[in-house]
Amino acid sequence: MANKGPAYGMSRDVQSKIEKKYDEELEDRLVEWIVAQCGAAVGRPERGRLGFQVWLKNGIVLSRLVNSLYPDGSKPVKIPDAPPTMVFKQMEQIAQFLKAAEDYGVIKTDMFQTVDLFEAKDMAAVQRTLVALGSLAVTKNDGHYHGDPNWFMKKAQEHKREFTESQLKEGKNVIGLQMGSNKGASQAGMSYGRPRQIIS
């Protein structure tokens, strides 16, 4: 943005720490996934943090990505015919992606803020959101994920257990180790320090 001047002192230190979190190897994997998921029409960015930011900045690639994870009849993000050129339209497109990603299941702590991408304030946060989205897509395994499933880790899934009445009754008779045990060591015969001296 035009009103963003150079950073000095502490704000420069903070910004450089944020920029160091950006992972260029992860960038390559994310680009491969986005191209596999959306098709070659999305193109490829120039290598590096700023090239990645410019590629995603107008929100169109992100919108195509999240739409590709849904069945044909229910695309959550409307994509304009011509890429938006006005700043507020581009930011609005990014916000629509974020809303669709959250609806897909990405948790709030994994989401980036619109300015993190638009002003390149925290591109590592953008990577974190895309990794969370990819992990969810692999975990759901509903046929909409394209690419190598090993690019992302599967999320932990609930493994619900059903117990019969007899198993529940049997469990009440077991004394867990947290409740103590009458076997093993005791404190009998132990003393801590000198006894209290009472002088009269």
TrEMBL record:
<dbReference type="Pfam" id="PF00307">
    <property type="entry name" value="CH"/>
</dbReference>
<dbReference type="InterPro" id="IPR036872">
    <property type="entry name" value="CH_dom_sf"/>
</dbReference>
<keyword id="KW-0007">Acetylation</keyword>
<keyword id="KW-0514">Muscle protein</keyword>
<feature type="region of interest" description="Disordered">
    <location>
        <begin position="179"/>
        <end position="200"/>
    </location>
</feature>
<keyword id="KW-0963">Cytoplasm</keyword>
<dbReference type="GO" id="GO:0005737">
    <property type="term" value="C:cytoplasm"/>
</dbReference>
<protein>
    <recommendedName>
        <fullName>Transgelin</fullName>
    </recommendedName>
</protein>
<dbReference type="Pfam" id="PF00402">
    <property type="entry name" value="Calponin"/>
</dbReference>
<dbReference type="InterPro" id="IPR050606">
    <property type="entry name" value="Calponin-like"/>
</dbReference>
<dbReference type="InterPro" id="IPR003096">
    <property type="entry name" value="SM22_calponin"/>
</dbReference>
<feature type="compositionally biased region" description="Polar residues">
    <location>
        <begin position="179"/>
        <end position="189"/>
    </location>
</feature>
<comment type="similarity">
    <text>Belongs to the calponin family.</text>
</comment>
<dbReference type="InterPro" id="IPR001715">
    <property type="entry name" value="CH_dom"/>
</dbReference>
<dbReference type="InterPro" id="IPR000557">
    <property type="entry name" value="Calponin_repeat"/>
</dbReference>
<feature type="domain" description="Calponin-homology (CH)">
    <location>
        <begin position="24"/>
        <end position="137"/>
    </location>
</feature>
